[in-house]
């Protein structure tokens, strides 16, 4: 569920086909639509060089943006990388192609715990790309340690104008739901409305709602508190060692972003070759070391520094996982309620 926005990017390289692809064409192109800043760009060059397949690469900033493009037939993509709940929705709406796993032999390296997930129970449509946890990031020089531990920190008036709230409806409303003791996936309209009411109460103390802007704000000490993903925290902490991260005691979100092929994709075999290459140890290690998200590839974990592979926030144990809940797809009437409540909040 990577949210750091980049400009749309494209690369092109053509060479002879070497090892690394699991079938598919040795030439042609593949159109990839991914979150911004969610890949080591040299991996695209490696793939082009080893397969002869040209990569046309573009980015989006939210699951909802990606869905709107697909739903509106706004572009022809061969590979997309949505999050768990959005994959479930795309499956329900018959917007994905079943995968030919004969062309994706590297799927065998995926952590068994991430196979046959709730959002794709028969594992017909998706291959995990990255996963992780959401939590609270704060500046230890600006925040009293006694105030940390809960989602309440994001509502603490002591830090008025120094709090950044995540700027998408599913995560923001989800945080408010979890703070109230409700499920991320509740279909109780009263609970959702109550959660948005608390977000409206929070608004006067916020510095802003933001997505990618949180990087510069927290790294530069221009805000004290924000909520984002652990992989992004590791990136921020490299630039500002005063930053710290915790999982709120009320519970938090565990998410998986996975590679899928949209219905009617023009280059399905090339798409499967791309997915398979992303599941190679070489590509997986490069991506993991570039963006710091948790890898689903067992061979990559073995190659990581033990300090990284043993990080309980990056590769949580059962105790940490017990605090986490994954998003699932919601009924259409609840999705409509999210839309109207988000508009009410932002009005």
Task: Sum up the structure in keywords.
2 domains, disordered N terminus, alpha/beta, 13 helices, 347 residues, 3-stranded parallel β-sheet, D-Maltodextrin-Binding Protein, domain 2
Structural class of the secondary structure composition?
A: alpha/beta
What CATH calls the topology of the largest domain is: D-Maltodextrin-Binding Protein, domain 2
Q: What form results from the Cα inertia axes?
A: globular
Distance between the termini: 26 Å
Radius of gyration: 20 Å
Number of helices, counting only DSSP H or I runs of 4 residues or more:
13
Helix content bin: 25-40%
In total, the number of strands is 10
Calculate the mean pLDDT score and round it. 91
Main β sheet profile = 7 strands, mixed
Second-tier CATH architecture of the largest domain: 3-Layer(aba) Sandwich
Number of domains: 2
Q: How would you name the CATH homologous superfamily of the largest domain?
A: Periplasmic binding protein-like II
Proportion of residues in β-strands: 15-25%
User: What is the string of SSEs from the N terminus onward?
Assistant: EHEHEHEEHHEHEHEEHHHHHEH
Spans of at least 5 consecutive residues whose pLDDT stays below 50 are: 2-25
> Could you name the CATH class of the largest domain?
Alpha Beta
